[in-house]
């Protein structure tokens, strides 16, 4: 198969590495920036284009769309028009997504939105523990995901890329990024009560912290905090069950559970090779690309859809309405 990577920034280069790890070496790239095309060519020995029409003429079988989120659907429609399977990075904008959903219904191609965190080995291990019923029925969760925005891409000015724009702001992007796995693990959300705010001196017109109370339809209560102000990169989870607790720490790479009978049981996690200037391993991204490949080949059912992704973005919308109006919002989906 031939893959076209659309967008050769941080994520685009990561996806090239992922595909090469999966022994997929027929890769071409596109970016409107010539410097990024040159960098990708030099680093990964791939042919690159600054014109998307010229890249399409090279007959790719699949497209990996790693542009800023506000461009995802533009390139998704180009992929559909040319009968090319496609994958998009994490979503934060609903614009044109319903149109893409309708176009996909009429096509025979795979359009797969990202749900990266579902593939993280910590999330997989947490789900395994929950399935054993060791801690009993989950009753409440406390989850914090935070990392200081200037540390996201230390090689570039955070004020000059999409994470500093209000519509595609970093904190706003990470909320649905986390919701994709929280909903998969704990089920549908019944209501949200949220507060978002700008509390730091970051030079960006964005809300830099979201605090959200989640009520799941199965009764589980959740407390979610997402921020881009934490000077240490946190991802920590506590699950309180009827018979025990689970604790997970992404920085320490550990999942622990406790019951009165067992005491603490620890499991160290390997999340793969960590690239320079990054804090998390490549493992979950490779797993996600492998799933895209298997979906195209019809070896597995498509694991996630744009219909599901749109529902996640609707939850983000409810959260923001809750914060703006000071009300609890009932989720209607």
Describe the structure.
The longest helix is centred in the C-terminal third of the chain and has 20 residues, at 306-325. Strand 9 and strand 10 form a beta hairpin. The mean pLDDT is 96. This protein has 2 domains: 3-113, 3-Layer(aba) Sandwich (Rossmann fold), CATH 3.40.50.720; 117-270 and 305-330, Dihydrodipicolinate Reductase, domain 2. It is an alpha/beta fold and 333 residues long. The protein contains 9 helices and 15 strands. It has a 9-stranded mixed β-sheet with strand order 14-13-12-11-7-10-9-8-15. A 6-stranded parallel β-sheet has the order 3-2-1-4-5-6, with helices on both faces.
Question: What does this entry show, briefly?
Answer:
This protein has nine helices and 15 strands.
Main pleated-sheet profile: 9 strands, mixed
For the record, give the distance between the C-alpha atoms at the N and C termini, rounded to a whole number.
Answer: 37 Å
* CATH topological fold name of the largest domain: Dihydrodipicolinate Reductase, domain 2
The helix/strand order is: EHEHEHEHEHEHEHEEEEEEEHHE
Known CATH architecture of the largest domain: 2-Layer Sandwich
How are the strands ordered across the major sheet? 14-13-12-11-7-10-9-8-15
Helical fraction: 25-40%
Please state the CA-atom Rg, rounded to the nearest Å: 20 Å
Tell me, what is the CATH class of the largest domain?
Alpha Beta
Please provide the count of β strands: 15
Beta-strand fraction estimate: 15-25%
Supply the CATH superfamily name of the largest domain. Answer: Dihydrodipicolinate Reductase, domain 2
Whole-number tally of structural domains: 2
Uncertain runs are none
């Amino acid at each position: 198969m031939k893959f076209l990577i659309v967008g050769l920034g941080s994520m685009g280069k990561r996806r090239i590495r992922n595909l090469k790890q999966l022994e997929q070496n027929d890769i071409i790239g596109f970016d409107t920036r010539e410097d990024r095309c040159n960098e990708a060519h030099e680093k990964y020995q791939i042919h690159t284009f600054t014109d998307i029409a010229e890249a399409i003429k090279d007959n790719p079988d699949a497209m990996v769309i790693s542009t800023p989120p506000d461009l995802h659907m533009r390139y998704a429609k180009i992929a559909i028009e040319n009968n090319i399977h496609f994958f998009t990075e994490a979503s934060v904008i609903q614009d044109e997504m319903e149109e893409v959903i309708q176009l996909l219904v009429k096509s025979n191609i795979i359009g797969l939105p990202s749900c990266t965190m579902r593939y993280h080995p910590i999330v997989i291990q947490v789900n395994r523990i929950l399935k054993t019923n060791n801690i009993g029925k989950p009753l409440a969760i406390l989850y914090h995901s935070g990392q200081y925005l200037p540390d996201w891409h230390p090689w570039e000015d955070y004020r000059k890329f999409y994470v500093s724009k209000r519509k595609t702001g970093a904190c706003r992007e990470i909320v649905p990024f986390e919701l994709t796995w929280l909903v998969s693990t704990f089920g549908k959300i019944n209501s949200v009560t949220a507060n978002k705010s700008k509390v730091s001196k970051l030079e960006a017109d964005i809300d830099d912290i979201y605090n959200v109370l989640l009520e799941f339809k199965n009764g589980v209560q959740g407390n979610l905090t997402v921020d881009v102000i934490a000077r240490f990169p946190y991802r920590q989870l506590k699950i309180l069950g009827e018979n025990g607790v689970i604790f997970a720490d992404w920085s320490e790479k550990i999942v622990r559970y406790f019951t009165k009978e067992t005491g603490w049981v620890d499991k160290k996690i390997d999340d793969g090779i960590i690239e320079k200037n990054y804090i998390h391993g490549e493992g979950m991204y490779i797993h996600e690309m492998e799933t895209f490949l298997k979906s195209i080949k019809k070896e597995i059912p498509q694991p996630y859809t744009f219909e599901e992704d749109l529902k996640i973005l609707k939850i983000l919308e409810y959260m923001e309405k809750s914060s703006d109006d000071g009300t609890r919002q009932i989720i209607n989906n």
